[in-house]
Hints:
alpha/beta; 15 helices; disordered C terminus
Amino acid sequence: MLEPAYQADVVVVGAGVAGLSAAHRLTSAGMTTAVLEAAHCVGGRMSTEKVDGFRLDRIGQLLSTAYPELGLTPGLDALVLRPFAPGVLLHSDGRHHRAGAQAGVGSARGALHAVRALANAPRPGALPRSRAAAARTGALPGGRAVPLPGSRPGGPWQSVPPPRVRPGAPLGTAVDQARLGAALTRIAATPAERLLRRPEAAAAEALAARGLPARTIDGFLRPLLAALLCDPDLTTSSRCADLALRAFAAGRLCVPEGGAEVLPELLARTLPPGVVHTGVRVTSVSTTSVTTAEHGVFRCRAVLVATDARAAAELLPGLRVPDFHPVTVVHHTTDEPPATGGSLLLDADRGGPVAHTAVTSAVDPSRAPEGRALISSTVLGTPPDGVDTAVRMHLARLYGTSTARWETLAVHHTAEAVPAMRPPHDLRRAVRLLAGLYVCGDHRDTSTVQGALHSAHRAAAAILSDLGAGGSMHRADPVRGAAAEAA
């Protein structure tokens, strides 16, 4: 029989969430598709290491229940999101403070709460009306001494005061807190298109120019945005920061049940058999073919490059490579976990390397074996020397407990974890480079899972528009066919 003109309608290079999502949309529209992945498993940076019954994310980017693409992406119907406790827990001056829990879904109830808080705010300098109120705003005395992490018996000790939860500081006065709540409620209800029309600056500059009290900015918004954007210096575009705040205020921060790898695995599982091929290294692409190191040349009608930004630029000369934010995730386990109620804990004082931490197994019990707790902590930027010791010392202060007996499960450092989004940042970078040559990924949108999925949505739509959904030619195994032709 004569060989067909091509092995597949579309060849997708890269089996991360963007490539797999685009492949699902293409195959659902009737396009024959081949997904080629150089690694021996799908997922890319969304990978999860399994150690002694623990599930340890390599990067552990935070998701939001308000990400639209999580609900719009075909294949993610079975995804289970495990939310953190509402808002976040801030550590400041030896105490824990609940913040952002009343932003909710940007509804009338959130606005009503803000109005009531403004109306009921006490006058500056006023004392609590009851002893109970005084107890809520104060702290029980009595810290305790614990050994320094890693020290020998009888070695140096450190003083660790017990964390005490307060609803107010470091957000400022009750009026400041109510104004913040009203601002979060407003941004939750603001259409994304309107946020994208705002003047653009670095996030740190934009916060300072918006009239919020410095205490609210430094004590809440800076640590929150640093965690959401993986950008400790807040050099990110203010428009991207506004989108991140909008997702926080409109939904709940969450993690996928079972680990980050669940997203790409769900997407891969819903593709027809024979579509995804791992261990296939692509060396060059054109509008009608893909050349691989081990399996020869794939002929096709279109090519979609869905790799990370650096790998995409190697295949597509001239594509800009952004700067990146490094991320280090340190996983510990203990049989006596600190009680944080499933909260994401941020350090408002920035008194150590940890930007945010959580008892992850309290949020998603599937990530740890029974009787053990998993504590996952994120360090942003270049990690210090002896990162595990530095993280343990910081965690002892954040949680108010000794970490000397905690067991280190893994230290994952990813130098190019998150593409930087410094201004001016185009949130809708072109996905169509030429007719027949396309690109998608978080570097074409926002540097989030939402951005990766949305860029895949745009790329698939562009391909279907250019090629149409009909006229595809079917071949059982394009990898085997291309290898045979090369031989």
